[in-house]
Amino acid sequence: MITSLTIKLKFFCIVLLFLFAGMPGLVAQDKSKAKQDSSAVVPMNKPALTKPVDPSGLKPSVNKSLTPATTVKKRTQTRPPDLTVAYRKPATNYLASKDRYSNGQLKEKGDSINGLKEGVWIVYDRNGAMTGKVTYVKGVKEGESIEYFDDGAVKETGKIVNDKYEGQVTSYFNNGQIFFQRWYLNGIQDSIWTWNYENGKASKIVHYTNGKLNGEYIENFESGQLKIKATYLNGKLEGDYVKYFASGQERRTCSYLNGKRNGELIQYTEDGKVAYKQEYELGVGGKIK
């Protein structure tokens, strides 16, 4: 009995010794394995980066394929509108070679916008004296127009619309007396046109309709004595035609039809005697009597 118990105790002691002897190796083996496993694990939120070296050896480069993508916000800058594009100050004193006389004297001077005359332009003669002022709008004459004599006195005034005279235009003698008054409608001769002598008496009075002479036609001597009296119809002489001497004596009488002499023509001497007579038919004259 005692021998059997002794054998069992010995066997138990041998097992315990074996277990205690192998424990440190197992623990070391487990620690080594855990260390290897931890070095192989790569965190998901921090991808491994590699830094390849530039073959030139001058500058390291970054492998962009392994770099996390990032979005770069562009900065925008608000600028005030460029007012010089919408409006440009007119260039003053527009000069060009074509605007000069052969002696180099300036012909005209004014402002221009985009190469087109704008505003009031001053016109000069070849000696540099101002001869006129013309108003332009986008390169076209539009507005008041004035011409001057060499001494600066007004020579002519009028209004221009779309590069043509419109309404009344008045020309003057150097002493300020009216020399010529005329009218335009849509740029065409219209109404009464009158010329005067420098003494103020009428030299000629005619009537226009749509650019053609229509109505009474009068010419006078400087004394005011009648010189010619006739009638026009659509730009052609029509009816009686009488011409006078300065004394008032008739000089010639005849008739017109559609602008041609038609009927008897009588020529007088200054003392009132008949010089000759001639019959006409639609412009064809017969024998002188």
Please describe what this structure looks like.
The chain is mostly beta strands. The chain has a domain of 77 residues. It is built from two helices and 20 strands. The protein has a 20-stranded antiparallel β-sheet that branches. Strand 10 and strand 11 form a beta hairpin. The protein is elongated, with a radius of gyration of 58 Å. The N and C termini lie far apart (202 Å). The relative contact order is 0.04.
Can you count the helices?
Answer: 2
Query: In one word, what is the shape?
Result: elongated
For the termini, the CA-CA separation is 202 Å
Low-confidence stretches: 38-70, 83-87
**H and E string:** HHEEEEEEEEEEEEEEEEEEEE
Would you report the number of β strands? 20
Which structural class should the secondary elements be placed in?
mainly beta
Described by strand count, sense and barrel closure, the largest sheet is: 20 strands, antiparallel
Strand content: 35-45%
From the alpha-carbon coordinates, what is the Rg to the nearest angstrom? 58 Å
Q: Compute the average pLDDT.
A: 80
What is the helix fraction of residues, given as a range? 10-25%
Describe what is shown at a glance:
By secondary structure, the protein is mainly beta.
Give the key terms.
20-stranded antiparallel β-sheet, 2 helices, about 15% helix, mainly beta
Secondary-structure topology with pairs:
Layout: H1 2-40, H2 83-86, E1 108-113, E2 116-124, E3 130-137, E4 140-148, E5 154-161, E6 164-165, E7 167-172, E8 178-185, E9 188-196, E10 202-209, E11 212-213, E12 215-220, E13 226-233, E14 236-237, E15 239-244, E16 250-257, E17 260-261, E18 263-268, E19 274-281, E20 284-288
Antiparallel strand pairs: 1-2, 2-3, 3-4, 4-5, 5-6, 5-7, 7-8, 8-9, 9-10, 10-11, 10-12, 12-13, 13-14, 13-15, 15-16, 16-17, 16-18, 18-19, 19-20
